[in-house]
Specification:
5 helices, Rossmann fold
Length: about 120
């Protein structure tokens, strides 16, 4: 079973996405901000990361940068990464691509789109 780390500061989003992903056959671990998400990445090395961008403290971009640094420093495998966010500007999409994100999905989003995107990565 593939493990997905879901990072979102909205409790409702976390609960909804976790439920849908679990019903779809994934093991889901949730984090409520970038700092706790980064810690879980280092502890667990999930198969995929789904992350919001706009979060208090460490935002999704900052977290992805730190994950990249950690992977380069430790030689850890590259973990596929999907931004799932309400941000839709061209600049933010470009930044996500520069950081190596596999996909950038804009909320609100159909769950089938999320599942299809995950399946193309796996």
């Amino acid at each position: 079973m593939k493990t997905i780390l879901l990072i979102d500061d909205s409790k409702d989003n976390r609960e909804d996405f976790c439920e849908i992903l679990e019903v779809s056959g994934y093991c889901v671990i949730a984090a409520d901000n970038g700092t706790s998400g980064l810690q879980k990445v280092k502890e667990m090395e999930p198969d995929l990361i789904l992350s919001d961008i706009q979060m208090a403290g460490m935002n999704g971009f900052e977290m992805k940068e730190k994950i990249n640094e950690w992977q380069a420093k430790t030689g850890s495998r590259n973990i596929p990464f999907i931004f799932l966010t309400a941000c839709s500007s061209i600049q933010e999409k470009q930044k996500a691509a520069e950081l190596g994100a596999n996909a950038y999905l804009t909320k609100p989003i159909e769950i089938n789109t999320i599942l299809e995107t995950i399946e193309t990565i796996f």
